[in-house]
Amino acid sequence: MRRFRPILYVLLFVCISFLIACGQSVKADKSAAAPPPTLVSVLQVTPTDAPIYAEYSAQTFARDLVEVRGRVDGFIQKRLFTVGSDVKEGQILYELDKRPYEAEVAKARGDLAQSMANLEFAKNQVGLIQAQADLAQANANLAKAKQDVARLEPLAKEEAAPKQDLDNARAALDANEANVAARRANVQQNRLSTTAQIDTAGAQVDSNKALLRNAELNLEYAAIRAPVSGRIGDSLIPVGGLVSKNAATPLTTIVPLDPIWVRFKVSEGEYLTYQNRKDRPAPSSFSLHMLLADGTEHPYVGHIQNTVNQVDPKTGTLELQATFPNPKHDILPGQFGRVRFQLEERRGALVVPQRAVLELQGLQSVFVVGPDNKVLVRSVVPGDRVGDGWIINQGLNPGDRVVVEGTLKIRAGATVTTQPYKPQPPKK
After folding, report:
1. CB 96 within 8 A of CB 70
2. For 17-44, what is each residue's pLDDT tens digit?
């Protein structure tokens, strides 16, 4: 037994040495396998002045669409516009057959000339002139008769002249007085008749002037013009078709495009919030920007013009209407887009990128790196959106370091290495 003790000691030493070597190897492997701290991008939160914007779905519409209709009946001889082109106010769009209206104008001019001749004849009525001459002659005869009576009365009294001559002179005087009265009545009758003829002829002249003007207007209406400037639509009646002034269907439509009208809707709550603001600005003071369906921004600034007079009970929204300059006529009615405008400017706001805010079961939180570079979880209450960021109303303090990039690689309590967050430049 004693013979085997040295061998047992050797084996025991070898085992102990092997175990020590294995323990050192395991420690070395564990030391080599420990990962380095995760690198994350952080943003140090600082108070800033943040503009608050509102953005709404919008649609353009034709506020003053005009239907082009004929004012007279006739067949279309020419169409002088291209469908979908821009037309100017007063531009001729259609020409009707003018011959019937040219004939009406010629007839009206002839009737007017005839009535003017009748008026001139009435003003120069010879019957009145003759009656006035007869009255003058009767007055002269009456004067002579008065002289004869006045001359014979003293002579007959002295019996220097026969009484019969005085009686004859007095009879002649009575006869001349009666003749003068008759001639005066004749003059009055002729004067009344002439006045009536002049008035009748004058009224006929005025009537014929009106008929001529109406005929000239009908001739003008045979050339159908654009009532407003704008983009013209399709022609609903072809060349050769009959135009009726009482037709239910218009010939075409014209839509003014500059400015273009836009409608959008705000919620009842937003409307009440605006009404309760003490520093409430006028709606027309907001500068509106319009984003089109392809993501491009309309280069001109718009303004709110008016609102409708009631809230839609089905949707609980109020419609606002705005105008945008559209000098190139590239925005058409019926297009969809979004309008955006600044509501206010928040002083001393804490803003973090949207990607830094995590949401789980309706609760929002962010990762915050403490002074010891360990990760903490903070519950936050986001407020208004500012560009690609959120205003944090509760949960953060100025100076906090919020993790923006690398949130999927870390957990609460982990030690991290930080670098400043560099936002990506906006895409053009």
Report:
1. yes
2. 555 555 555 454 544 455 788 899 999 9
State the burial class of residue 282 (Cβ atoms within 10 Å of its Cβ: 0-12, 13-18, 19+).
exposed
Contacts of range 4-9, beta carbons closer than 8 Å, 24 or more positions apart: none
Q: Cα(287)–Cα(143) distance, rounded to whole angstroms?
A: 97
Residue 347 half-sphere exposure toward CB, CA atoms < 13 A: 0
Edge-to-edge strand order for the sheet containing 92-96?
223-225, 92-96, 74-79, 242-243
CATH number assigned to the domain covering 53-63+256-347: 2.40.30.170
- Segment 308-337 shows an average pLDDT of 93
Tokens 């520093």 found at:
279
d(CA 205, CA 200): 9
* Cα 428 to Cα 122: distance, rounded to the nearest angstrom: 86
CB 33 within 8 A of CB 393: no
User: What is the DSSP secondary structure assignment for residue 37, as one 8-state letter?
Assistant: P
pLDDT tens, position by position, 367-413: 999 999 999 999 999 988 887 888 999 999 999 999 999 988 889 88
CATH topology of domain 67-97+222-255: OB fold (Dihydrolipoamide Acetyltransferase, E2P) (2.40.50)
Closest C-alpha among 407, 425, 414 to residue 40: 407
Read off the DSSP letter of residue 76: E
User: What pLDDT does 186 receive?
Assistant: 73
CA angle 341, 345, 349 (to 5 degrees): 130
**Is the distance from CB of 341 to CB of 54 less than 8 angstroms?**
yes
Place of tokens 């006529």: 329
Residue 352, phi then psi, degrees to nearest 5? -125, 155
Q: How confident is the model at residue 95 (pLDDT cuts 50, 70, 90)?
A: very high
pTM equals 0.62
| CATH architecture of structural domain 38-49+349-420 | Beta Barrel (2.40)
41 phi/psi in degrees, rounded to 5: -100, 130
Place of tokens 């020419």: 78
Q: For residue 118, which phi and psi values (nearest 5 degrees)?
A: -65, -35
